[in-house]
Amino acid sequence: MKSPNVVWHHGEVTRDMREKLNGHKGIVLWFTGLSGSGKSTLAHAVEARLYEQGAHTFVIDGDNVRHGLCADLDFSDAGRVENIRRVAEVAGLFVQAGIITLTAFISPFRSDRERARSLLGEDFVEIFCSAPLEVCESRDVKGLYKRARSGEIPAFTGISSPYEPPEHPELEVDTANLPLEASVDRVMDYLSYRGIIAS
Ligand SMILES: Nc1ncnc2c1ncn2[C@@H]1O[C@H](COP(=O)(O)OP(=O)(O)OP(=O)(O)O)[C@@H](O)[C@H]1O
Ligand SMILES: [Mg+2]
Q1: Which domains does the chain have, with CATH numbers?
Q2: Alpha-helical segments (H) within 140-179
Q3: How many CA atoms within 13 Å lie on the side-chain side of 109?
Q4: How close is the Cα of 167 to the center of ligand 2, in Å?
Q5: What's the mean per-residue pLDDT of the chain?
Q6: What span, in angstroms and rounded, lies between the C-alpha atoms of 134 and 176?
């Protein structure tokens, strides 16, 4: 609960100044898709490409924040909503720092992603990793689908909990069929088109 005695302190160094220093703009690339659709793989590969070009980046990855920032949250609907809210807030801080921020969360609920969008405005870029359930399940990178099918994991997205695909994502990447490097190219092209990085 926000206290009425908390007053925003404006700094002297602005986002615009940080972006000039960095040589590119800040943005949030919000990767969404089923478990195993390639969010983490793609986000880290894009980050590596950007790093090679001298860009300032950071990946906020689902599993990692659950170890710290969101360690107190469960996978209930309320837990997922709060998880995404915190991530959007943190991503917003990174953007203010002028950083190209990549988030890799299943973020299955449209309403949560829309909340992140309304918080971040034009800084929010929704990237749908569209590999379908059959492909993700056949990959089963973490062995979670097998465990979910046997009833060991309750409310597993795609099996016993819904995934609501984006209706109008800024970018849809066919991570079932495209090779990884081609997927990275699509994201990089988008960043150039938006003027986030120089083309
Ligand atoms: N074009 C592609 N983009 C991304 N990943 C791909 C692509 N093609 C194949 N893959 C493979 O798909 C798998 C995706 O796994 P990854 O852990 O990135 O998924 P995830 O969406 O982050 O899942 P989770 O929500 O469980 O963290 C990897 O084994 C990766 O090598
Ligand atoms: Mg991942």
Answers
A1: 27-193 (3.40.50.300)
A2: 144-149
A3: 17
A4: 22
A5: 95
A6: 10
DSSP 122: G
Q: Residue 5: phi, psi to the nearest 5?
A: -90, 5
Cβ–ligand 1 contact at 37 (below 6 Å): yes
> Can you tell me whether residue 57 is helix, strand or coil?
strand
Length of the chain, please?
A: 199
Q: Any idea which ligand is nearest the CA of 181?
A: 1
Q: Say how many Å lie between the CA of residue 102 and the centre of ligand 1.
A: 15
pTM above 0.85, yes or no: yes
The percentage of the chain sitting over the pLDDT mark of 70, rounded to a whole number, equals 99
Tell me the pLDDT tens digit for each residue of 7-64. 888 889 999 999 999 999 999 999 999 999 999 999 999 999 999 999 999 999 988 9
Helices (H), the chain: 15-22, 39-52, 62-65, 77-96, 110-120, 133-139, 144-149, 180-193
